[in-house]
Amino acid sequence: MKIVTAEEMYDMDHGTIQEIGIDGKLLMENAGRAMADRIRKRIAKMDRIRIFAGSGNNGGDGFVIARTLFEYGCRVSVVQVVPDEKIKGDALFHKNLLIRCGGEIEVARKELDIETILQETDVIVDAMLGIGVSGMLRDPLAQIVAAINENDAYVIAADIPSGLPANEGAGEFQAVQANETIVAGFPKMSAFLEKTAPYYGSWETVSFGLPAAITERHNHRHVWTPEKFRKTMPGRKRNAHKGNHGRGLVVGGNVEMPGSIAMTVSAALRTGAGLVTAATAKDIIPTVSSYCTEATYLTLNDTDGYLDGSNAIPFENFDAMVLGMGLGRHLEAGELVQQAIEAQLPLIVDADGLYHLKAMLHQVKQRKEPVVLTPHPGEMAMLLGISVPELLQSPFSYTKSFAENYHVYVVLKGMFTIITTPEGIQTVSEAGNQGLAKGGTGDVLSGITLAMLMQEQTVPDALNNACFVHGKSAELLTETNHSVYDLTASDVITGIKAVYRTFQT
């Protein structure tokens, strides 16, 4: 499933009309009917439905929705929120069709009209404003949106909640708070941003006839789905042995955080790594081994329980490595990061490793083997030298620019995890829930990522599948034996088996 900006969606519409020759009125008919079919499944026969329609294509969709629901025998009428002279083109064509079919249209002229109408409404369909909106609304639309948000009626948005920006980078805005949104074509970027996503409510997409010859122009931003996981996750051969599934190295841990590396090691093994070695301080090994008996160990030199750089790690014995969890921010630990950058194997950097890496990014660009960074927003903002709010306002743009500039893969963790390749291709993992907002879950993701990176799949597929397994484990656990309150990082490790059993059967 693609993720598009407003400009990309406009290009698809215009290309379909101008190059393919499909009439805009037909596209509007297709979109409105597809949305109406979904709305029909969500309403009761006697519900009083009001379609709030504007002047553009979104309003035109609203007129088609109203006519389609009217044909189904629903109790539906249209509230036109702009003067008659504003309705033009394809939208006017479908408005006139609705009138000739016997549909009702009221033109809202006062705020009082809206409040009176809403008192007699069970379901609101929001088709006032489409994807071209930015900034704060002006009256009377601002008053209408405020009245809808204060009302108890169930709100379904057509394509996008009115007033909500479609793209990232939004400043202040006023938008309809929908209970659900029926998206035409492809989800817009704002459906995956922390600030704007809640306005959609739940959402789903409907197709309305855009040909692949046009839509494939915009193929650089996607949602990673369970179907993609099933398709790309490699199987296991009956004659496989442990060496076929990777020899992973995990470097980190200190006396104050021995559990971090233990969870990474355990997660890597549970995900399917053939062999995993924990490289850490001598005093930490008993803690890790009691938690994960299947691992092997490499004792590293330390100073008072904190790893230092006076180690000669045999990197050539491993297929991939991850470092950073529990590493510490003292100067000596940075020497380990420097050694890892110079090593010739795929490298995952997390947690404290990212802190040290910032000063070495110029070296990362020269590296031949893949480098994967797995920051949370605070760590990503640190790497970029910006504030967290700035990052969260435009996470797609910031991570794309960073990944392309330094030739790295970036896994920006969050409510919607964004995975970006050095070529600027981006995917979003929706898997997961608020139960993952706990210490240690990032360490678990690092271990899962290490294991995935060593399987027979591309690096992008490995990263997407790692995020999928991590998030789906949390989802499945909270659907059965856990809540989002009591879920722990260790629980997520035990839940990995359920993901495989559910999605790999």
From TrEMBL:
Chain sites annotated for binding AMP: 413-417, 442
Task: Tell me its EC number(s), please.
Answer: 4.2.1.136, 5.1.99.6
Q: Name one Pfam family in it.
A: Carb_kinase
The membrane spanning regions, by residue number, are none
Q: Which UniProt keywords apply?
A: ATP-binding, Isomerase, Lyase, Metal-binding, Multifunctional enzyme, NAD, NADP, Nucleotide-binding, Potassium
Catalysis performed (reactions): (6S)-NADPHX + ADP = AMP + phosphate + NADPH + H(+); (6S)-NADHX + ADP = AMP + phosphate + NADH + H(+); (6R)-NADPHX = (6S)-NADPHX; (6R)-NADHX = (6S)-NADHX
Residues engaged in binding K(+):
58, 126, 162
- Record's cofactor remark: Binds 1 potassium ion per subunit.
Which GO-annotated molecular functions does the record name? ADP-dependent NAD(P)H-hydrate dehydratase activity; ATP binding; metal ion binding; NAD(P)HX epimerase activity
Among CDD domains, the record links this protein to: YXKO-related
Q: Where is the YjeF N-terminal domain?
A: 9-216
The Swiss-Prot or TrEMBL record lists the needed cofactor(s) as: K(+); Mg(2+)
UniProt xrefs under HAMAP family: NADHX_dehydratase, NADHX_epimerase
Outline the subunit composition. Homotetramer.
The record's comment on protein family reads: In the C-terminal section; belongs to the NnrD/CARKD family.
What is the protein name stated in its UniProt record?
Bifunctional NAD(P)H-hydrate repair enzyme
Q: Which organism is it from?
A: Lentibacillus amyloliquefaciens
Taxonomic classification: Bacteria, Bacillati, Bacillota, Bacilli, Bacillales
